[in-house]
Amino acid sequence: MTLRLATIVWQSRVRPLLPLILLALMLTTLSGCGYSGKSLYPTSIRTVAVPIFANRTFRRQWEFRLTEAIDKNIESRTPFRLAPEGKADSVLTGTIHDITESVLTNRFQNNLPQETQITVVVDFTWRDVRTGRILVQRKNFARDSTLIPQIGERLPDAEQQAIERLARAIVEQMQSGF
Question: Which residues pair with 42 in a beta bridge?
């Protein structure tokens, strides 16, 4: 008799509500993942100017390589368009302060570097030029790359990887706070 009663309750009361229960679960799951339907980027900004970063290190051409990588990341990963500095809604400026190569491990046989780490440190500011408001500002922002020559990696490859990681991280910071 109890099983029969449970079946009647299921068919008459719970079953018609099943689509609503599933919808509620789905919405709860989406809100738990952080999805709010809002843009990750400020909607008032449409264009970004990225002048060549300053370079306070002795290494040549890094400022051009980093600026180019940032431009590519902005174009491919954000809703913003690149624009000349005088015509943009915002400007992203920065300075490379340090580029270091650190030996992480040496080879046992001959004490030559086995694994090397390249670290790039920058300061950058993203500012809304119409209001003067600073949207994002980071000091001593760093990313690194590891070089292992014995598996065929070359120093220029590790340098480029460090630049691309830094550019990607800078563009990701343009999402913070929005």
Answer: none
